[in-house]
Amino acid sequence: MNSVHSTDSGQFESVIGLEVHSQLLTKTKMFCTCPNIFGIEPNSAVCPVCLGLPGALPVINFEGIKLAVKAALALNIDINKRSVFVRKNYFYPDLPKGYQISQYLEPVSSGGYLDIKVEGVEKRVEINRLHIEEDAGKLIHVENESYVDLNRAGTPLIEIVSEPNINSSGEAVAYLKELRNILVYLGVSDGNMEEGSFRCDANVSVRKKGDPGLGTRTEVKNVNSFKFVEKAINYEIERQIDVILDGGKVIQETRLYDSKEDLTRPMRGKEEAHDYRYFEEPDLPPLILTDKFISEIKGSITELPTAKRERYATEYLLTEYDGGVLTQDKEIALYFEDLIEINEGRVEIKKIANWVINDLLSELKTRDKMKVRKERVIDLVKIENFLGLILEVETGNINKNTGKTVLAEMLLSGKKAGEIIKEKNLAQVSDEKGIGDIINHVLEENPKELTDLISGKDKLFGFFVGAVMKKTKGKANPKKVNEILKRSIAEKIKGCRE
Amino acid sequence: MDNLYGLTIGELGELLRQGEIKSVDIADSYIKRIKEVDTSVGAYLQTDFEEAMKNAENADKIIMSGGDIPPITGIPLSIKDIFLIKGKKTTCASKILNNFISPYDATVVKKLKQNNYVFLGKTNLDEFAMGSSTENSAYKVTRNPYDSKRVPGGSSGGSAASVSADLCAGSFGTDTGGSVRQPAAFCGVVGLKPTYGLISRYGIVAFSSSLDQAGVLAKDTTDAAILLGAVAGFDERDQTTRRFEVKNYADIVGRANKASIKGLRVGMPVEFFSEGLDPGVNSKILEVRELLKGLGANIVDISLPDTKYSVAAYYIIATSEASSNLERYDGIRFGYRYKQEQGTRGLGLDDLYSKSREFGFGDEVKRRIILGTFALSAGYYDAYYKKASLIRKLIIKNYKDAFEKADIIIGPTSPAPAFLIGEKTGDPLSMYLSDIYTISVNLSYLPALSMPVGFADNPTKPGGVLPIGLQIISPWLTEDRLLSVAKIIEGEIKFRENNINKKDIRYE
């Protein structure tokens, strides 16, 4: 949006609250024993309970409760030992019972926070609550027909509601990334935004800087990637500021983000005019959690990203940046830690970190774009093989560039570095005599350049290094090449003077 | 042996175990009786005689093989058409479920099958169990076996009539506000609603989840104990059932001794004997009081002051829960779907919902959905649903206090005997008031039963009589006490023995 008011918009600040829904990685659904899986034939993981057949009754899946409590504990949210399930009533074809079992006034946990860092600045985002509910099914529209798939109906969900104390899209994204990362670390969620197992609605409002009250908010839905969250919030902030500067009033409404057009649109009034008629779910007794239950879950929580980052800084002496990158993904962090363990001090930790960050992660990124799952990559490059590759480079058997070639090959074949080096004859030429012979050869082949170099055109040194590397197909140890070449040229100069 | 249909489950079981008769004989007797009589009573919505004979043959084999035979093995029973039975239609007497075939068994049914009962058929009810006369059925009228012009009560009217008219040996119903006890009273049979949570609700079409409870309708208290014992107990599919101790009710009732009445504190709530109580009913209940006094009971006057709000609280809680429970009948996945002349194409989603529900549900169901939806809506929740829930707590407390002073409570089941068909259909409120003594029991999760204790003269039928029901209420999970006291009263009053030729059933 190109705002004519852009000069005035600086007097506003935005206030954002996020509602995050995350599916839980339980074996079965929240209130029945159907498998909790994705991507199978429609309506094949269903039973009388999740189909909402007459007479069927929900039964609480305690695995789901455990994961929700685990998430709440990790997010510093207080656990309520007594919580109550409610019915949220509305009609929609993907909602078989006509109500969603959720929690409302008495959620399983409430009052917590999550610390984030945006451009080096720390911020504490207050969390209002985390509660348990069930997912709805899915509608599939084909031309003029609509089909209902209820495989997802009854999938365990947690909803995490932040307080409205996020003030920019950047903070919103940082919060979501950290939140998602924690849930994945905990094994609570797979964090998949594309498949909708981790999704978010943003409540956005703006106010004049310094105003104590909140402006009228809109709820932005359909933001299923970090990028869209950022764009949708930015769009909505600008839109609201424009409305106000034009003398209008922001209407409280639900808006859908259109990623193709990069804008938000109001939902039809009817679609959002819900009176959910919440009341206690009479089919389920209140959920009572014991201290023992809670402390057992507390004890099962493994190291979270923040703690890891701190440890990487103190124990591994890595920079904050390196620690941040390495802990962004639980699998990668564990991979890195395993590397260090089997390395047994042979290679400097910083170097291993560089290998992971610069080589493995960039490779992962490329593959990610090609929709190759990261598990597959980690699977292909076994930890011991990756360390083997690092050692080959560190001991000088191959040079860094050849290392990259070996890694690419490793990803294709899954073979060990040594095997690949042998097969492809990639071993570095390091012996003085070998390199010396090649250098002499190159010098002889280029008498003019040699003369120029001797007469003072130092730039030509690089030319000769390049020529030697070319001759050895990159296998020569560059350090050695430099050394010997310097020596040879010095001798030549000396010879000339003599 | 002739007229096996007239015997109780206890009597039939004894003959079966002694090898005097076979289950197929009993089934045959009931099938004939249903064929002769049910066209006039109208208790059944569906029957399956072929299956009944198959069940009976199977039961005979099991009885032949000996061993420990459960008391309902080989006994033909009817089931209210609100319980799901795999492969059979469950209509709930509603048009909206006119084509719904159950894909699974209710837990009660599963247990009955494990006990090798004989299935006769499914009985009529008020649509979705909403009503007190069975007149709200979308399918048929059920008549009171004592007067074909009168209602059998409801909502388990078909079940009560089927037991009363000897169209089965016993029946399963449900009781949300009196739906087992009131029809039992109207039809002169025993109706027991156990403690909420004693019988699984899994597979019973929900009306009001916090009030619904399966119950039994039987020819006498022994049979009621047998039927309860067959289906009571914890069910992992229903989280409102608890790991209660399931007692051997039939054994306990069998040992019931008059002497145990001595010193029993029998509570009579003043609120149950006030305005609106039929004098004929009143005098019968007072006779029971004298009887118990004569056996040594201490009669204590008690008060349940907040039960005067129970009808109001009930109609908010029950309709609120119903408005939510009935949302699943939307024409999308099963049941009735409204079709336009040219099919449903072109019909918007909202129209599909509203038309399917408009034509699928009957008036009383729609009335309650609207009431409940209103009571739960934003801005009204506190004034209605929340307040009703508070009143419910007060009523629970009333009973708790009362049971400090009394071991059991007695009173009328219904303010008056069976009313005429059509008498109250135009006046929903007066219909609601026919459950005035039963509703507070559901609100308090308590067990209670209704048993016939005599007759009132039938004002519209010279020489005719109408049964009167006594309601006995006892503390949570004391069904054994409840049934034992009832058994002793039954032994003194001898209702069945004095009941010959008083029914009004035409034979085809």
Please give a structural write-up.
The complex is a heterodimer of chains A (498) and B (508). By secondary structure, chain A is α+β, with helices and mostly antiparallel strands. Chain A folds into 3 domains: 17-205 and 274-296, no CATH class; 303-423, no CATH class; 432-497, Arc Repressor Mutant, subunit A (Orthogonal Bundle). Helices cover 42% and strands 20% of the residues of chain A. Chain A is built from 17 helices and 16 strands. In chain A, the strands form 4 sheets. A 9-stranded mixed beta sheet of chain A has the order 2-6-7-10-1-11-12-13-14. In chain A, helix 8 runs antiparallel to helix 9 (349-369), helix 14 crosses helix 16 (460-471) and helix 14 (432-445) crosses helix 17. Chain A is elongated and about 100 Å long. The model of chain A has no long low-confidence stretch (mean pLDDT 89). Chain B has 508 residues and is α/β, with parallel strands linked by helices. Chain B has a domain at 4-261 and 482-493: Amidase signature (AS) domain (Amidase signature (AS) enzymes), CATH 3.90.1300. Chain B is 38% helix and 12% strand. An 11-stranded mixed beta sheet of chain B has the order 1-3-2-4-6-5-10-11-9-7-8, sandwiched between helices. In chain B, helix 2 (23-41) packs antiparallel against helix 3, helix 5 (157-164) packs parallel to helix 6 (181-187) and helix 10 (310-325) packs across helix 12 (363-376). Chain B is globular, with a radius of gyration of 22 Å. The mean pLDDT of chain B is 95. Chain A binds chain B through residues 48, 51-60, 87, 89, 91, 93, 96-99, 144, 148, 270, 275, 277-279, 282-285, and chain B through 83-84, 90, 92, 97, 100, 102-104, 106, 201-206, 208-210, 236-240, 320-321, 323-324, 326-328, 330, 332-334, 345, 349-350, 353, 373, 376-378, 381, 385.
